[in-house]
Write a structure and sequence with these properties.
Layout: E1 4-8, E2 25-26, E3 32-33, H1 37-58, E4 64-67, H2 87-107, E5 112-115, H3 119-122, H4 127-136, E6 147-148, E7 150-155, E8 158-163, H5 177-192, E9 200-203, E10 210-216, E11 219-225, E12 248-256, E13 261-269
Parallel strand pairs: 1-4, 4-5, 5-6, 8-9, 9-11
Antiparallel strand pairs: 1-12, 2-3, 7-8, 10-11, 12-13
Helix pairs in contact: 2-4
């Protein structure tokens, strides 16, 4: 059992605003895709996250990694922002981005896990994410699914429950409401069946990071929503609240320390559009 867990999500590889390595990407049609300036800037943060922040927060110890869904962008909502609608092209980009992270995790003595995201992006049954997770060598669950719908993970003395979806809102004033409700629901469900409640729950999907804490018998419990690795698509520019905020990039860590367990978040944001 490791004492460190790193969680990322929503890389949306295959989107021109999603995570993409800076090296030329060979496409199935014979063409080549080159990352945009925006994607190269985001990739620079990706390298800082894995090359500097993760070694710092794990203190050089073994750590497990969870991709919490929407690794690829898919072909969805009549959108035109994809690099390619060929899902093999998208999976190739995701593998190029994620395989070094999986290898780094394993070399450090950890295990890679993968959660299924939104059907619009990863297939109605998560089949596109399942193929990717199998290719990356994710640990399968008891049903043989390499990309699972949720994960109960022990990190030292704490219990963590991870899944992709969480309710959203267009109101910044109520951004914490669904997150608090999700944590409360976990405790109610655990009490109903006399099961151990999670100390931390991790959700994604929103592309905006937030955390809600509450006191518990172990000290505190928390619901944490991860940031993403995707810029603002044309769809986002129409959504109240989201259209005036800047994209967030990063991930979270959960660690069992010498005296207590705790979480940390690393979140970057971009500057606003240039003033004219």
């Amino acid at each position: 059992m490791t004492k460190n867990l790193i969680v990322i999500s929503d890389t949306h590889c295959g989107c021109r605003l999603g995570l993409c390595p800076p090296t030329p990407i060979a496409l199935d049609s014979g063409g080549t895709y080159h990352a945009s300036e925006f994607q190269r800037q985001m990739w620079g943060l990706w390298e800082i996250f894995w090359g500097e922040w993760v070694p710092e927060v794990t203190r050089g110890e073994p750590y497990d990694v969870v991709h919490n869904g929407d690794a690829v962008d898919g072909s969805h909502h009549n959108s035109t922002t994809q690099i390619s609608h060929n899902l093999e092209d998208q999976s190739r980009i995701a593998e190029l981005a994620l395989q070094p992270i999986v290898t780094q995790c394993r070399n450090a003595g950890g295990t890679y896990y993968h959660i299924r995201g939104t059907e619009a992006h990863v297939g109605q049954s998560g089949e596109n994410e399942e193929r990717l997770a199998r290719s990356l060598g994710a640990k399968p669950n008891e049903h043989g699914q390499y990309a699972r719908f949720d994960l109960w993970k022990r990190v030292g003395e704490c219990l963590v429950h991870l899944l992709h979806h969480i309710g959203t809102t267009s109101s910044a004033a109520h951004e914490a409401s669904a997150v608090n409700a999700e944590l409360t629901a976990e405790y109610v469900e655990a009490a109903r069946w006399r099961r151990e409640p999670p100390d931390f729950i991790v959700r994604s999907h929103r592309h905006r990071s937030i955390a809600v804490d509450m006191n518990s018998s172990k000290g505190y419990a928390a619901a944490i929503v991860t940031p993403a690795w995707q810029g603002k698509t044309p769809y986002v520019w129409k959504i109240p609240g989201a259209r005036i905020s800047e994209p967030q990039f990063g991930g979270i860590s959960i660690r069992q320390g010498d005296e207590e367990f705790y979480y940390r978040r690393k979140v970057w944001s971009l500057d606003r559009s240039r003033e004219e």
